[in-house]
Write a sequence for this structure.
């Protein structure tokens, strides 16, 4: 069912004030440090994978948590949806701004997951430079905003807020990321991208 673009607002009925990101920004200036400003300890000073405690794949409770999550997804109400119009080139920047607005409105960093359909977010590139184990240890810790691409999104756990940056990639990646993001979002789903492309992908059978 096609989605109808909404005004570029990030809002939640029970969380914080209504916030409105700037929709028509041009030539966004890249941040000097990967990742959003966070209320938690900033990422750039992290010394690397040394102190991280990666969880072995065998310890991940796939079957038990998967069944309970599937059961919850059938009974819980659908998350609120917000579409922020943005070109493929500015979708990542729009997602970063949405993260900042949510943090400023009182959301905890660990509540937010960001999925990209094209190039990885600079934060993900930075953390993956220390190795996959350290990267996924950050995810399992759940104490900060986490960034994953559409391929890795199958492995992420649900969070209250999920933001999808449709920043390129093939339509198959978008078609995979959007329904997955809807499953992972507990309260709010934000999609930053070109409305026509998103509606076309959703109308293709999502």
């Amino acid at each position: 069912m096609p989605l109808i673009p909404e005004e570029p607002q990030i809002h939640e009925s029970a969380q914080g004030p209504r916030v409105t990101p700037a929709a028509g920004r041009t030539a966004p200036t890249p941040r000097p440090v990967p990742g959003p400003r966070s209320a938690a300890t900033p990422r750039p000073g992290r010394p690397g994978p040394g102190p991280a405690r990666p969880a072995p794949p065998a310890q991940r409770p796939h079957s038990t948590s998967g069944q309970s999550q599937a059961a919850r997804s059938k009974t819980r109400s659908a998350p609120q949806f917000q579409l922020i119009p943005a070109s493929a080139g500015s979708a990542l920047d729009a997602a970063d701004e949405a993260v900042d607005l949510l943090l400023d409105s009182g959301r905890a960093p660990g509540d937010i997951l960001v999925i990209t359909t094209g190039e990885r977010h600079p934060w993900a590139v930075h953390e993956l430079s220390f190795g996959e184990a350290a990267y996924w240890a950050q995810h399992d810790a759940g104490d900060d905003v986490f960034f994953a691409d559409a391929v890795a999104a199958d492995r992420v756990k649900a969070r209250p807020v999920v933001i999808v940056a449709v920043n390129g990639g093939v339509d198959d990646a978008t078609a995979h990321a959007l329904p997955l993001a809807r499953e992972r979002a507990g309260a709010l789903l934000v999609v930053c991208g070109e409305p026509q492309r998103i509606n076309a992908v959703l109308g293709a059978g999502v």
Q: What stands out?
A: The longest helix spans residues 62-75. The CA atoms of residues 113 and 146 lie 5 Å apart. Residues 13-68, 70-75 have pLDDT under 50 and may be disordered.
